[in-house]
């Protein structure tokens, strides 16, 4: 008995030592492939390597992450999940329910995440009370970006209402400038759409329509007006918009070919990576109306075998939420830190506006999850809405027809 007990204790010690000694490995699936995005993810790769980790990169190009999510599904179905995956919002819960996520509570508890993350962000990272994802940032979605010189040359101020936006766009169009740089991809249409829902309907309406999926809100006169505005915006994009990547649309604003882009603040990451300065070369303002649409990037760890991979997951989770990474990564990415204790001293005016507006919105109940970026709804419901938004944007469908299709698509999506 004694011998046996001794043998067990010593083999446990060997096991523990080997897991501590294991060299951290991580295959990381993400969709950060544009200039600003690549610069941001490089920060994590460097820190991982500096801490003894070996990073295997699995980038899947495609803004908004639709292609990355398809690649993920294929890998999980093949029984070969990547170690760490850029995953967010309700999709984290959906994968948890499939029983394929690793529990990272030991890291979260050791690092005191509960003390440094706002409760609303922490809630997205927890699955039935355990920690199942690590947050990277807070991106704001409801932004307008503008070329400062183009606006000045045409005597235009940043619009504060949708009517002002339309008037500015008409003026620019008459002057031969493309008013709105847009990429005709479903997720980009959805991005513009949700800012119009928030702007024209207000925070309460947004919540009813795109979070609660209330049929009355979906078919309301307000939603008819939202589709009217989408039709108006369709008239402000150039004829080559179809299929264009979001970062190429940002480049059109940068080089003065177009005046505005409606896009989340990953667009700021592109401006910054190209050496442009906010307030001088480009302008930022929230899209017309009240409220704040948040989009929190995070990484979930998948249940994989091997001490080296588990060590990689623990190291990654720890680095991602650590203050140094949250500062440097977000300075490049265009977003703000998810942690509340990182100083914004080094951040630009757009980031400061974002942080202030987020605090105000959080107090007055207008801090809302982005449906277009997978924070508000499960995949089936979000997809049903986006299909209608895109079909409307790319056809001559009436607004009345669109709201009817919207309500039907949502009802049939469960
Ligand atoms: C992600 C951002 C990313 C953007 C464009 C968003 O859904 O949250 O991190 O930069 O898509 O790819």
Protein described:
The chain is of the alpha/beta class and 414 residues long. It has two domains: 20-139 and 295-349, Periplasmic binding protein-like II (D-Maltodextrin-Binding Protein, domain 2); 141-294 and 361-411, D-Maltodextrin-Binding Protein, domain 2, CATH 3.40.190. The chain is built from 20 helices and 15 strands. The strands form four sheets. It has a five-stranded mixed sheet, sandwiched between helices. It has a four-stranded mixed sheet with strand order 14-7-12-15, with helices on both faces. A four-stranded mixed sheet has the order 9-10-8-11. Helix 13 (221-234) packs across helix 20 and helix 19 (379-393) runs antiparallel to helix 20. The longest helix has 20 residues, at 2-21. The protein is globular. It starts with a helix and ends with a helix. The chain binds beta-D-glucopyranose (BGC). Beta-D-glucopyranose binds next to loops.
What can be said about this structure in brief?
With 414 residues, the chain is α/β, with parallel strands linked by helices.
Name the bound molecules: beta-D-glucopyranose
Rg over CA atoms, rounded to whole Å, is 23 Å
Distance between the termini: 58 Å
- Named CATH topology of the largest domain: D-Maltodextrin-Binding Protein, domain 2
Q: What is the helical fraction, as a range of percent?
A: 40-55%
Overall strand count: 15
Overall geometry: globular
Strand content: 5-15%
Give the number of helices.
20
- Give the rounded overall mean pLDDT: 95
Could you give me the name of the CATH homologous superfamily of the largest domain? Periplasmic binding protein-like II
- Largest sheet, strands/sense/barrel: 5 strands, mixed
Highest-level CATH class of the largest domain: Alpha Beta
